[in-house]
Design brief:
about 210 residues, 3 helices, three-stranded antiparallel sheet, alpha+beta, single chain, Creatine Amidinohydrolase
């Protein structure tokens, strides 16, 4: 609702994690409006207003293993520009997923997302407007584990590797869009742990 603060949402998410048996938030980033354009967040809490982009990146720990997921949506009716970049982010995430093949270098996953974004006039490479950081990180007993899905990483993809897939779009001084889901490698290719967000109008698949 309008007027809620980011700290109030963080507390609600902690309660939700506890309700399903986790100790609470292992971490929780909640951002509204222009603050969403900072990939690692901002220190000051924000208050929700109509038309704000909302970005929530959170996870918990169960049996020493860590979860991590990000959803981005709009409070109210999305503008055409917000909708365009949300759809672009989703397509970049899918391009990265499609490029994950056993034996191929990790950097190919990152490269696939950037090549798609370049066709949309974003970037190129790590420039903004575009994706200023790696496409993904390994995850397991730590929140950020090697190998990373990033340019220059020649590590071959192998069965059992687990990664985030989050080629975040940053539109400076406006907003950011990050859709983050995790996948693991099998002999037959990548498989999602969490199903990607459906649309900006139905971000949680409800």
């Amino acid at each position: 609702y309008a007027g809620i603060t980011t700290t109030e949402v963080e507390a609600f998410i902690k309660q939700a994690h506890q309700k399903v048996g986790a100790p609470g938030n292992y971490f929780c980033i909640v951002l509204f409006g222009v603050a969403t354009s900072f990939p690692h967040g901002v220190k000051d809490p924000q208050t929700l207003k109509a038309g704000n982009v909302v970005l929530i990146d959170t996870g918990c720990k169960v049996h020493d293993y860590i979860s991590d997921i990000t959803r981005t949506y709009v409070f109210g009716e999305p503008t055409a520009r917000q909708r365009l970049f949300w759809d672009t982010e989703k397509a970049a995430q899918q391009a990265a997923f499609n490029a994950a093949k056993i034996g191929e270098p990790c950097e190919n996953v990152d490269k696939a997302a950037r090549q798609y974004l370049a066709t949309q006039g974003l970037g190129p490479e790590y420039q903004t407007p575009g994706c200023p950081h790696r496409t993904g990180h390994g995850i397991g007993l730590d929140i950020h584990e090697w190998p990373y899905l990033v340019g220059g990483n020649k590590t071959p993809l192998a069965k059992g590797m687990c990664f985030s897939n989050e080629p975040m779009l940053v539109i400076p001084d406006e907003f950011g869009i990050r859709l983050e889901d995790h996948f693991y490698m099998t002999d037959k290719g990548p498989r999602w742990f969490t199903e990607p967000s459906e649309s900006i109008d139905n971000p949680f698949g409800l």
